[in-house]
Amino acid sequence: MHIISDIVEKDGKRYTRYWNFDVDVVEQKKNAKFVCELCGKLPGGDWAETPLAVFWQETPPVEGYSNYFGLLVHPLNNKLYITSAASVAADPFVGVVAENGEIVYSAYRHDFRHSTDGTVFIDGGRDYTKVGVLAGQDINLIKYVTLKIVKDKIEIVEQLEPAQTEQPDQPDISWGK
């Protein structure tokens, strides 16, 4: 199994999927490693509706700071901000396993992502989990995983067995190609 990447490669460079930040420039400038794009908590405790580009530093620049920092562009003034991304790494999140072994997770609310083989999708970020499969497949056989950020990587914490009971009252959320 492998976890889907938040890096897009273009012209020999690596960029973040959502924000399009040049990963190599940030890693070099901040002596950090890119982890993923994932939403963090807002001051009120809710999850943000856009992700942070999350980076990990072995040694934070200031004593007492988190090893995780996040980059984002503010929607109102279009300026680049850097913030603590400690909340991103504090809590686990859910992923689904595609037939090709790829693990897909949703980074933020309404982040609809599907596997590269098209066999599963997930949506909802950390606010809710909505999943689906190709038409004709049994949605009760979806394999779930619990993921957590550990240092500079996303790791599988737990593999959950698919539900074995039928749920006929559930709406059909399968999708076709």
Structural account:
With 177 residues, the protein is mainly beta. It has 2 domains: 2-88, no CATH class; 90-160, no CATH class. Helices cover 7% and strands 38% of the residues. The protein has 2 helices and 14 strands, in the order E-E-E-H-E-E-E-E-H-E-E-E-E-E-E-E. The strands form 4 sheets. Strands 1-9-8-13-14 form a 5-stranded mixed β-sheet. A 4-stranded antiparallel β-sheet has the order 4-5-6-7. Strand 11 and strand 12 form a beta hairpin. Residues 164-177 have low confidence and may be disordered.
The largest β sheet comes out as: 5 strands, mixed
User: End-to-end span in angstroms?
Assistant: 23 Å
Regions with pLDDT < 50 over 5+ consecutive residues?
A: 164-177
* Order of helical and strand elements: EEEHEEEEHEEEEEEE
* Helix/strand/pairing category: mainly beta
Number of domains: 2
Strand content: 35-45%
**Number of DSSP E strands:** 14
Which geometry do the CA atoms define?
globular
Calculate Rg over CA atoms: 17 Å
Query: How many helices in DSSP terms?
Result: 2
Helix percentage range? under 10%
Average of the residue pLDDT scores: 89
- Order of strands, widest sheet: 1-9-8-13-14
Task: Give the key terms.
mainly beta; 7% helix; disordered C terminus; 4-stranded antiparallel sheet
Q: SSE layout and pairings?
A:
Blueprint: E1 2-3, E2 7-10, E3 13-16, H1 23-30, E4 33-38, E5 52-56, E6 68-73, E7 80-84, H2 86-90, E8 93-97, E9 102-105, E10 113-114, E11 120-123, E12 130-133, E13 143-150, E14 153-160
Parallel strand pairs: 1-9
Antiparallel strand pairs: 2-3, 4-5, 5-6, 6-7, 8-9, 8-13, 10-11, 11-12, 13-14
